[in-house]
Amino acid sequence: MQVSRSLFDEVMVPNYAPSPIVPVRGEGSRLWDQQGREFIDFAGGIAVNCLGHCHPALVKALTEQANKLWHLSNTMTNEPALMLAKRLVDNTFADKVYFANSGAEANEAALKLVRRVALNNYGPEKTQIIAFKQGFHGRTLFTVSVGGQPAYSDGFGPKPADIDHAEYNNLDSLKALISDKTCAVVLEPLQGEGGIISPTVEFIQGVRALCNQHNALLVFDEVQSGVGRTGDLYAYMGLGVVPDVLTTAKALGGGFPIGAMLTTNDIAKHLVVGTHGSTYGGNPLACAVGLAAFDTVNTPEVLNGVKVREQLFRDGLNAINAKYQVFSEIRGKGLLLGAALSADYAGKSRDFMLAAAEQGLLVLMAGYNVVRFAPSLIIPEADIKAGLERFEAAIAKLVAATAAAKNAG
Predict the structure, then answer these.
(1) Which GO terms describe its cellular component (predicted)?
(2) What is the CATH topology of the domain spanning 56-297?
(3) Among this protein's residues, is 307 annotated catalytic?
(4) CA-CA distance, 284 to 256, in Å (whole number)?
(5) pLDDT at 409 over 80
(6) pTM value > 0.85
């Protein structure tokens, strides 16, 4: 059977528009397609492949567990789930863990939890959830409604009610919405899809204070920013603000699907038996791989290495920009970075992504004005250098083509 990109159009629902590249093998920060062409990976499966492709520790954990036990049900627990939950509890603010299969499911659990806590503690009037414009929290109807991008939630009928959106890094906009009817404030401690926007210290501390004032729970969506991505184990640790509920996924499994919601004893007690569940959540395969990924990342060497690599990226991108003036700023933290495009290239992040792929480099978009980088946390420095050289070649070609088109016009 011939397997090619054209088969996608024949057999897959058309909600994606994947690249013509069909990777068949990966190792570390390199990928190879069907034709044997090599790519350097600065995308990381959208911040998922925190240890690159086929990391030996993850391969070992998966193959060993595959020969023991794959799936039970949540009528029973299992050793890998308990071990990973203990590791998460021991290394964060949390006392309790709920496992799911994805970031959206972890967020769905968090949103149901905060509504239930408010109902039990304060009564049926305290239902408002406040999130932020340009936020992203998943694709279920509840999470996509909480996400602050109407293009993702419009057109699917009535949305879950009592959800409002403030402006990120604008405390006054939150003050205008929050009240004693607010059950929770939900935000990313580093906005990803919304353009790689870091919170100011005043903003993030102000959000915490307003939640305390109005007896609202603070939920941090760390699906993208968690598990070493910012150079801290979780982004909240570098902000000096502790949430009441935290969600994590993506890098937690290093490429194997897993998500988790973390919270305290006092909050967790409201999800009594039967209030929420997941068929596959906490399965032994996912948790065994998750444990290996977590333990590999959660070391001073890896976390400090993220900060070293961040500087290499920043220096390299700034050097490129000194030649071509295509970026207005380099944003983000750790290895979740965004190159915001200058006015001359506004709206063209997809062009940069495609031009990079032509040069054998995989990058991402964060909206149409930001090129996003989310590589392996342990990407070799030589691969950073080589990847940035390919990126510069792509930009040189794009700049020349843009200038030629302008002159022709």
Answers:
(1) cytoplasm
(2) Aspartate Aminotransferase; domain 2 (3.40.640)
(3) no
(4) 12
(5) no
(6) yes
